[in-house]
């Protein structure tokens, strides 16, 4: 796995906005500019609504991109969470996402390779596996039009290409 500390702030913000767009981008920026910020401090810095900020923070916490420390707010006398960006986790997060995508592509390829597929030509009707096409005497089970074999060789080729690329990338 490659680890680059340079620019990890940038990748932290980039990943945040890839996950959730503008709102995540703003929260990530605020977390980087204010170390150990509370949700209220982030609200002050971004002008965003506190419930949205909390939703973003809990999601990023769930994805292990930030940590939260429970501390007592001396002025108010109750406990608040202070949040910190885990910039060093960005690379791990990206690797995990790549592995998930790779697994999905591999499952899709296995599915495409598992059978021949047939279709009636109507966009509303689903693709039909060979076994089912036989059962229905090569008539679409929905609209009863004739089923024709689908050439999925281009799709399989594209899937194999993407799988090779990702596997190479992950194992670097
Ligand atoms: Zn049909």
What does this molecule look like?
- This protein has 7 helices and 5 strands, in the order H-H-H-H-E-E-H-E-E-H-E-H.
- The chain has 172 residues and is α+β, with helices and mostly antiparallel strands.
- The protein has 2 domains: 83 residues, Arc Repressor Mutant, subunit A (Orthogonal Bundle); 57 residues, no CATH class.
- The strands form 2 sheets. It has a 3-stranded antiparallel sheet with strand order 4-3-5. A two-stranded antiparallel sheet has the order 1-2.
- The radius of gyration is 24 Å and the shape is elongated.
- The chain starts with 7 loop residues before the first helix and ends with a helix.
- The N terminus is likely disordered.
- Bound molecules: zinc ion.
- Zinc ion binds next to loops.
Q: How are the secondary structure elements laid out?
A:
Elements: H1 8-20, H2 22-33, H3 39-46, H4 50-62, E1 66-72, E2 79-85, H5 90-113, E3 117-119, E4 128-129, H6 130-135, E5 148-149, H7 153-171
Antiparallel strand pairs: 1-2, 3-4, 3-5
The protein binds zinc ion (ZN).
Zinc ion binds next to loops.
Going by CATH, the homologous superfamily of the largest domain would be Winged helix-like DNA-binding domain superfamily/Winged helix DNA-binding domain
Give the overall shape, derived from the CA principal axes. Answer: elongated
Poorly predicted runs of 5 or more residues = 1-6
Q: What average pLDDT do the residues reach?
A: 91
Bound molecules: zinc ion
Strand order of the largest sheet: 4-3-5
CATH architecture heading of the largest domain: Orthogonal Bundle
Domain module count: 2
DSSP E strands, number: 5
Text of the CATH class of the largest domain: Mainly Alpha
**Helix-strand pattern, N to C?**
HHHHEEHEEHEH
Biggest sheet architecture:
3 strands, antiparallel
Figure out the total of helices: 7
End-to-end separation: 6 Å
């Amino acid at each position: 796995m490659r680890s680059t500390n340079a620019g990890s702030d940038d990748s932290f913000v980039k990943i945040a906005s890839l996950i959730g767009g503008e709102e995540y981008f703003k929260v990530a920026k605020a977390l980087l500019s204010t170390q150990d910020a509370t949700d209220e401090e982030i609200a002050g810095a971004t002008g965003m609504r506190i419930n949205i900020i909390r939703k973003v923070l809990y999601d990023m916490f769930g994805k292990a991109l930030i940590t939260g420390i429970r501390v007592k707010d001396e002025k108010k006398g109750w406990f608040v969470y202070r949040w910190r960006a885990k910039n060093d986790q960005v690379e791990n997060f990206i690797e995990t996402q790549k592995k998930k995508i790779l697994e999905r592509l591999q499952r899709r390829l296995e599915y495409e390779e598992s059978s021949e597929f047939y279709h009636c030509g109507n966009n509303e009707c689903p693709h039909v596996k060979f076994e089912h096409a036989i059962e229905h005497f090569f008539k679409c089970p929905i609209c009863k039009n004739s089923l024709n074999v689908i050439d999925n060789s281009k799709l399989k080729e594209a899937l194999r290409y993407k799988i090779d690329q990702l596997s190479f990338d992950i194992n670097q």
